[in-house]
Amino acid sequence: MKITSKRPAKTPLSRSLGWQRGVLQASPIVMGYVPVGFAYGVLAQKAGISPLNTVLMSLIVYAGASQFIAVGLFADQLPAVTIILTTFVVNLRHLILSSALAPYLQRWRKSELAAFAYHLTDETFAIHSTQFSIEVPPKPAVFALNITAQCSWVCGSMLGVFAGKLIPDVRPFGLDYALTALFIALLVLQIKHRFHVIVALLTGILAVGLLQLGLNRWNVIVATVIGATIGVTLEQWINTPSSSS
């Protein structure tokens, strides 16, 4: 008697649906990445970075805030070591992001983890953290979201390269605010309880306060750690009466 496995096979149709799901979930990120990537491309051209290096930075580095900082430091003609160390410090927040998602990815292969970590950004983390808390989505959907997000960033950068000579300044168009607006939209989608609002406000106020005190490169990281600690403590305090009853 022939015994067949009951585990469903991954058909091309299921993988196709997973990719479609990921692309659709990336749509709010795309709407933010294209204009911000466009602004980066324009600023990189103004700073004297070649079109090829401008696009390669979006392909290889792929870190929005760090790319803007690197462009400014390059324009000031600072040493390469200074630019590398500065962008490294700015990207230290990815240690927090990746560690928060690590428990959901324990069964993934190392190659898959490397690919996932490479494409992880603040915005994709916001969507992944919300989804993973409910269920771990199919891998095609996860990678489709990440790849779509980076493609939109690269496309925006390329458009900025081509339009760099035509637009003297992107600030009158408000493109530099697109990323901030995207962060606000993603934050609103994650707020489910009143204490989430309290934690978000406290973390935001703390980040601005630390920035005013001169903690330019560390304000977001320190505020995130303190805000997360407050959030966990507050959640445990709220749930204590119900758990003891």
Can you tell me about this structure?
- This protein is mainly α and 245 residues long.
- It has two domains: 16-190, no CATH class; 192-245, no CATH class.
- It contains twelve helices and no strands.
- The protein has helices spanning 12-25, 27-46, 51-61, 64-75, 80-90, 93-101, 110-119, 122-132, 139-163, 178-190, 194-212, 219-244.
- Helix 2 runs antiparallel to helix 3 and helix 8 packs parallel to helix 10 (178-190).
- The longest helix has 26 residues, at 219-244.
- The chain starts with 11 loop residues before the first helix and ends with a helix.
- Mean pLDDT is 83; it is low at 1-9.
- This is Branched-chain amino acid ABC transporter permease.
Keywords:
globular; cell membrane; mainly alpha; 2 domains; transmembrane helix; transport; transmembrane; 245 residues
In short:
Its main location: membrane. Helices cover 74% and strands 0% of the residues. It has 245 residues and is mainly alpha-helical.
Number of domains: 2
> How many strands?
0
| Global mean pLDDT | 83
Estimated share of beta-strand residues? under 5%
- Helix and strand pattern: HHHHHHHHHHHH
Shape: globular
Strand count, sense and barrel status of the largest sheet are: none
| Proportion in helices | over 70%
- Return the structural class: mainly alpha
